[in-house]
Fold each of these.
Amino acid sequence: ANNRLSYEAQTMMSKRHMERAKQVMPGGMTANIKHFEPYPIAIKRAHGSRLFDVDGHEYIDYLMGYGALMLGHGHEEVKSAIQQQIEQDGTWLFGTPHEKEAAFAERLLRYFPSMESVRYTNSGTEANLLALRLAMAHTGKYKIAKFEGHYHGAIDSLLISVSPNEQDAGTAHEPNRVADSYGMDELAMQNTFVLPFNQYEHCEKILTEHAAEIGALIVEPLEAGIIAPTNDFLQKLHTLTKKLNIVLIFDEVKTGFRTGMGGVQNLYNVEPDLTTMGKVVGGGFPFGVVGGKQEIMGRTSPLAGFDFFADQDQTDRKQLALFHSGTYNGHPLVLAAGLATLDVLEEEMSDLLIRTEQFKSELEAVFKKHSLPMKAVGIGSLFSVLFTNKESLSNYRCFEHVDKKLRTEMDRALFQEGIYVKPGNRYSMSVAHDDEAIEKTIMAYEKVVPTLFP
Ligand code: PLP
């Protein structure tokens, strides 16, 4: 028993908001992921590590815009970079080349040795679309391999086996191809092979068997942003894809700048052919990046036939240039926010990584004290709290042993103590999560855990 308010009593105005929103938007949502039962809270304003909802409550925010806000809410340096862009340059969109585009690319090349050239998009999803097209153009092969449990955006050929249920999922070694949405292009689906993460021999078998058709292998180098590759898994994929002429794409949309100034690729010392990014690099604005080897990236150049492919017959130019465009690509406000974000991260990265490790070990101490089968799982400034007895988690199938119901129950109770994570979601740390925020969170855990597990 406890004297907490019920969820409904605590969120009356949110409930009213959602009822209004449902009249004009399906489910009252602009994105399915925003939903949770019985209804999500609506937020009015935010500052630093805190969210303030329409009912006037304050929460420590660990969702942080699905990991995009690595500086927390309303960081002063991002604010002033945006203001400066508007005031000095007089507008927020040129539709022409401008200095920040190259300046930002130079910074990315410095952090990511695998990148020789970059293109910008407006989301992580769009970045993956471009990466796939580049891989297909480069190899002349039009099928794709992806991993079970890995999310790359709502793309027909990739929104497959992201969260299949046990009955449909097939064997652990050769997972079935399961659509995650209605309405997807059947043909696109059939062109995708699904692989098991951290099971190199099985990946090798599937990729080798279909090497004549597969042009791209895309992977979240930390599965779901938190599960580490075992042994030399990523290196071995790198060697194999090179041998089979398959373009290796690291989707670092979630992981970019989460494990240090660079990606997971730096941590494991593997250079993918292409990398896609989003979230953190856009400083909380809509953004995506594709970066990689010049020999592949160069295919998007409108000069393709003239400079990069200078040795080719000029009549090939139309065939060789790959179309990539977008009204908002390289948006000045987004790049201003992104550059300011990278400046702050250079200063704050090591402190944040240390603080996250401390936070995780304090959480684990609470779990241990109460003999709970719970762990804080992740590398760098992203982690999740999982209820499981399993010693090591190697891929999607291991999550079958994780108790999601208990986690949701705990999130509900923590929410009532002023801690906000969307139920079941990751903890995305930011530089705004200072010692005070972390201490408050640990205290909330200390309070909640004995009531859930007396
Ligand atoms: N790739 C990964 C690994 C992601 O986590 C996400 C978003 O959560 C995406 C791609 C899609 O990015 P966006 O939501 O910006 O389209």
Amino acid sequence: QLSASFEDAVKGLRGQATISDTNVDNALRQVRRALLEADVSLSVVKKFIEEVRRKAIGTEVVRGIKPDQKFIQVVYEQLVKLMGTENTPLIRNNGKPTVILMAGLQGAGKTTASAKLALYLKSQGAKVLMVAADIYRPAAIDQLHVLGKQIDVEVFSISKDVQPEEIAAASIQKGCEEGFDCIIIDTAGRLQIDTAMMEEMVRIKSAVSPDEILLVVDSMIGQEAAEITRTFHEQVGITGAILTKLDGDARGGAALSIRKVSGAPIKFIGVGEKVEALQPFHPERMASRILGMGDVLTLVEKAQKEVELADVEQMQKKLQEASFDFSDFLQQMRLIKSMGSLGGLMKMIPGMNKIDSTMIKQGEAQLKRIEAMIGSMTPQERQNPELLASQPRRRGRIAQGSGHTQNEVDKMLVDFQKMRGFMQQMTRGNNLGNPLSMGN
Ligand code: GDP
Ligand code: MG
């Protein structure tokens, strides 16, 4: 009887279901497959999925969507968070040249990315110098000169008989003397990770003390991205990455692997062979691309917005009609408890922007008591709070039924009346203070 009426009280509230161990399995499979298809490395996928699973259990799901769809949204948000939420810009020095060292395997797109970056920085007003420190491939120095001409950026080179670290050191001296703002050092890659390449990178690094060491990774390289990143990061230490060739059909899972393995942000993406084809990295766009479930994400977002809007509109109407009852009270407390929906509510109700997290915590403790008491009310009592105000015997019964003292029930009733008054004031645009401090 008691639990049935509680069911009733809860019906129509926002949290219709939560993500649980049982309903999440199907979604986990979908997400795992999507990540692997996007070429996120297997070990990264495993770790990531377990983390998200733990985080997602217990998450409330709004009407109109399924727990597994909601789970995919949680995964998406976690992906975005993991990749840094916002774009991380390049480090820039004031007064002395910013030194950027390009690292990566042969063919990854280092030389192209050097020119792209040079053009990007030039367009921001910087005086840029590119440095040809790849002395192994015969055409490498020429390639950089050609690109330099194309974008009208000076290229510094010596000859293939001078060691890369000496070339790099000389370029820094020139850069300082001639007032360059940025020096981009293009280095040699190998087809695979090898000791000689790593040692050379370390020597160049000590010769120039770069501000940025950007690992250039071909997004088509797939699963290997994690291992390449690990090696470069352990042996040289990277400050960021550029993910290239995203104009192809790579889903971009390398972005997740790079970030997860090194902790370094992806700063740019390459989207074509042309020197203009460089874009700042945006975690949200990449997360959508990696998941490849844009339709699900849109659906969840839409359902959530609809529920929030419906809740707020319904509440405002009730307040205007002064029919705010105990069920609404419970719903309000729940709304306040979940910050996400509070955000939506705050936008619509003037003066609601003074609620902080301590108040939310206080509200949570109260919510438990209130839920129990409202659960012990009859439907008439819930709809008609005046019945309780006028009949102490009803309050006694509710106290017994919910395991509280009559005093506590009386206090809850006072809280309710304050909340109702507060809500009514709010819709008129007056701020009476903190709605959750009542009864304390
Ligand atoms: P490096 O050996 O690391 O210096 O690589 P390169 O800069 O010489 O690039 C290798 C090849 O990849 C060249 O043919 C480039 O045109 C091509 N490339 C580089 N970046 C991109 C990109 O973002 N998109 C596409 N489609 N091709 C790229
Ligand atoms: Mg090159």
